[in-house]
Backbone:
């Protein structure tokens, strides 16, 4: 498309252009439609501003034509559809934004004025530019996809026909890219980055496409001599950094000035300005290009190569040569006549040139006069321009004032509506307040009812607890009575054993009478009298001990010692009497047969006692004599080690709690662990005192026997010590585990309190086992009692600190009823009642389970007692035989 042809159809509008276009077969000739789009694009860019307005009335026809050509998937049809969509988008953009000229060349100030300094306008303008640039890129891609880039298509006529409109696309795209970058920086300075995420994503996509297309276009030979295509930066701008705007360089497209050759100027002087006449000589060239597009360049480069025509005869070639020779001769004659005509025309034109030079001199004189007038008019025009600018400023100010007035009016209307809403909302809130007040009254009444029910339930629970405590006390009383009866039975069995031992000693003395070794023994009567007197004195002490035992049932030890001492004295008296009788003659007695009969009966009784004694041997752990003593020492050492380990673990837990916990939780944990540490120290002191007391008991009671023999001899007492030591060590370990869980927030405070009570019971058992054989005036016994009191106080301290910590922790979980409605309060009340019933049921079941456990414990404890009672009965039966 030649610029002079386009200039001839521009007369301050596009009426002439559309009058000519409407006669063209654009809907049937795709190539003609493509060239029309190229010309129309140039008109929209470089034509008069009225071109866009005059062309909008043909928008519907262009849309129909675009849809029609869009049905073709190959060739110029698809390209025409894309190009028509681009032109429609361009017209719509300029109609919506009249401040933008057709060539899109604007300064930064004009760009700001186009958006009227309103962020909403800039936001919408950016979206429209994205749509505009998207259409430009679609045309770019469509043209490149229709070309075979493996060949030098840019130097062929068909390739140049398709590439030529891309110059206008490059010009538009460079401006649209520049304005889009500036608008996005402006939007990022006013709006949050998240709001513009879609803009950034769309820009990134278009940036990659545009950069690739610019690079591909710059490598084509066709564009290198017509236009200088800018290269976009390697990376897109960073809109999140405001300083990146200073790094942005606006892409500039440079079109070199075209130099006209002398031949072209000569042809311009010769031809007229009729477009149809100038296009006539070009038609053969167009047909030749079409031929090249279809069949390649081989035929065009060698049109007279007849050697390849294998089927043509030589006579035909001669005739063809002669015909062509004649045509050449005719053309030469025509050329000669054309030269003569040209010479004549040159002479005429030279005369015309002289005339024009004279006219030019006159026009120069007139021009000088016009220059003076133009200076005057220019000054006047400047004044008018300043007046116009002032008027425009005032007009803009007036428009701004009117806009602000309209905005204030709208704001007033909105405020009025808001005030009406607030009044309505206030009335609604008053009604809601009355309703809430009524609901609160009902809620308070319900709360009072709940409190009364809670107090009633608490009273019932308290009464149940008191009843349970009474039952426990009754059971304890029964237990004490049972223990008292067991103690009485044990005392009686001890006394029975002492009597049996005394009887055995007497029987041994009687048995020595028949011993042949004893027959030769003699003694004096004085010594026999002294032994009898000692026996009588011991008999008196026996009577006094018996009287004191019958008085309070506590002096059994004194009675046992008296019986044993008396047995030894009586046996010695019998032996000494027999030895004294050897000094006199033997006289036969009449009761010898009765004595023999009694001796036989006595032997049978002794055999029965021996069999019974075999049955009474312990059936528990079959320990050797040395193992029971070692076991006592091992258990006491293990108990001390368990207490030491528990104290170390508590210290470690205290350090960890101080490093992790804070506030109330740290204070509660420190108090609980400190009380547990005190309890461990008290238990440690108790164990040491118990070991010292046991050592005194063993030293005072073993006589000439060893310590292990003493433990074996007093096996029941030893087993009590072992059991108590195990219970103390186990209780310390369990309490430390419970304290660890409580500090970690995984355990229960009640479990810790139960463990402390269990430790108190175990230490009480250890104290009782240690006191059984101790002298009441022993100093270590006093220390043991003080240590026992210390354990009791430390246990109370653990329970108190645990309860206090539990109450402090539970204070944070106090429920807030202020924000609850009547329905929610009623629902919570029902849930609380359900929880109370569930807890009561669970409490009743746990009490029944506790009762069964205690019952089973008493039964198991009673088995050993019954076994002991049965053994005592067997011994009594044996004594009855004697």
Residues:
């Amino acid at each position: 498309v030649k610029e002079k042809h386009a200039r001839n159809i521009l007369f301050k509008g596009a009426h002439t252009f559309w009058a000519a276009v409407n006669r063209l077969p654009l809907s049937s000739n795709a190539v003609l439609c493509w060239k029309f789009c190229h010309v129309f694009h140039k008109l929209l860019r470089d034509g008069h501003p009225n071109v866009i307005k005059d062309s909008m009335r043909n928008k519907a026809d262009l849309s129909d034509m675009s849809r029609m050509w869009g049905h073709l998937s190959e060739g110029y049809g698809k390209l025409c559809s894309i190009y028509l969509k681009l032109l429609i988008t361009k017209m719509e953009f300029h109609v919506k934004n009249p401040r933008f000229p057709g060539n899109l060349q604007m300064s930064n100030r004009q760009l700001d004025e186009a958006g009227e300094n309103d962020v909403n306008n800039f936001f919408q303008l950016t979206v429209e530019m994205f749509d505009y640039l998207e259409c430009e890129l679609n045309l770019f891609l469509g043209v490149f996809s229709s070309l075979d880039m493996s060949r030098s298509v840019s130097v062929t006529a068909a390739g140049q026909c398709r590439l030529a409109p891309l110059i206008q696309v490059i010009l538009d795209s460079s401006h649209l890219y520049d304005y889009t970058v500036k608008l996005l920086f402006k939007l990022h300075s006013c709006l949050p980055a998240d709001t513009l995420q879609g803009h950034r994503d769309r820009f990134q996509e278009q940036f990659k496409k545009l950069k690739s297309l610019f690079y591909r276009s710059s490598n084509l030979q066709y564009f290198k001599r017509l236009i200088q295509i800018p290269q976009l930066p390697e990376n897109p701008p960073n809109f999140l950094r405001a300083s990146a705007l200073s790094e942005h360089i606006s892409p500039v497209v440079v079109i070199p000035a075209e130099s006209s050759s002398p031949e072209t100027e000569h042809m311009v002087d010769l031809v007229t300005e009729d477009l149809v006449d100038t296009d006539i000589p070009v038609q053969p060239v167009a047909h030749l290009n079409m031929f090249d597009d279809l069949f390649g360049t081989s035929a065009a480069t060698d049109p007279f190569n007849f050697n390849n025509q294998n089927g043509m005869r030589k006579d035909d070639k001669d005739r063809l040569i002669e015909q062509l020779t004649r045509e050449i001769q005719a053309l030469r004659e025509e050329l000669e006549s054309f030269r003569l005509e040209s010479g004549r025309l040159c002479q005429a034109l030279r005369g015309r040139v002289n005339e024009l030079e004279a006219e030019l001199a006159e026009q120069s004189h007139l021009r000088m006069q016009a220059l003076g007038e133009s200076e005057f008019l220019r000054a006047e025009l400047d004044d008018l321009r300043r007046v116009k600018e002032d008027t425009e400023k005032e007009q803009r100010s007036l428009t701004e004032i009117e806009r602000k007035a309209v905005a204030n009016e709208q704001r007033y209307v909105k405020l009025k509506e808001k005030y009406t809403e607030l009044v309505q909302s206030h009335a609604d809130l008053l009604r809601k307040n009355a309703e809430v007040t009524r609901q609160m009254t009902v809620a308070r009444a319900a709360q009072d009812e709940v409190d009364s029910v809670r107090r009633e339930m608490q009273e019932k629970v308290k009464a149940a607890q008191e009843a349970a405590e009474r039952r426990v006390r009754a059971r304890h009383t029964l237990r004490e009575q049972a223990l008292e009866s067991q103690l009485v039975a044990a005392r009686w069995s001890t006394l029975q054993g002492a009597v049996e031992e005394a009887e055995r000693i007497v029987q041994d003395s009687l048995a020595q009478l028949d011993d042949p070794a004893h027959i030769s023994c003699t003694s004096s009567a004085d010594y026999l009298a002294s032994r009898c007197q000692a026996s009588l004195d011991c008999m008196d002490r026996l009577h006094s001990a018996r009287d004191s035992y019958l008085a309070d049932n506590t002096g059994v030890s004194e009675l046992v010692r008296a019986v044993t001492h008396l047995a030894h004295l009586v046996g010695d008296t019998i032996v000494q009497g027999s030895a004294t009788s050897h000094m006199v003659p033997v006289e036969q007695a009449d009761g010898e047969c009765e004595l023999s009969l009694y001796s036989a009966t006595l032997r049978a009784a002794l055999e029965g006692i021996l069999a019974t004694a075999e049955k009474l041997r312990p059936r528990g752990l079959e320990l050797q004599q040395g193992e029971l003593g070692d076991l006592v020492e091992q258990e006491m050492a293990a108990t001390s080690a368990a207490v030491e380990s528990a104290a170390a673990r508590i210290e470690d837990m205290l350090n960890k709690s101080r490093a992790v916990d804070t506030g109330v939780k740290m204070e509660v944990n420190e108090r609980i662990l400190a009380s547990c540490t005190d309890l461990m120290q008290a238990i440690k002191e108790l164990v040491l005192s118990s070991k010292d007391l046991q050592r005194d008991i063993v030293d005072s009671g073993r006589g000439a026997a060893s310590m292990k023999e003493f433990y074996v001899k007093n096996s029941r007492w030893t087993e009590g010590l072992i059991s108590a030591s195990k219970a103390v060590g186990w209780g310390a370990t369990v309490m430390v585990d419970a304290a660890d869980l409580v500090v970690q927030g995984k355990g229960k405070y009640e479990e810790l309190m139960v463990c402390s009570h269990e430790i108190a019971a175990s230490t009480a058992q250890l104290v009782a086992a240690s006191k059984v054989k101790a002298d009441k005036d022993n100093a270590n016994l006093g220390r043991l009692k003080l240590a026992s009191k210390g354990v009791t106080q430390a246990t109370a301290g653990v329970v108190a600190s645990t309860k206090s910590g539990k109450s402090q922790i539970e204070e944070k979980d106090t429920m807030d009823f202020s924000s609850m409605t009547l329905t929610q309060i009623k629902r919570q009340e029902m849930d609380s009642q359900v929880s109370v019933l569930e807890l009561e049921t669970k409490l009743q079941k746990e009490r029944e389970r506790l009762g069964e456990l205690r019952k089973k414990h008493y039964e198991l404890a009673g088995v050993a007692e019954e076994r002991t009672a049965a053994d005592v009965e067997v011994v009594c039966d044996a004594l009855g035989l004697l």
Summary: Residues 259-299 form one domain. The longest helix spans residues 314-512. The chain has 28 helices and no strands.
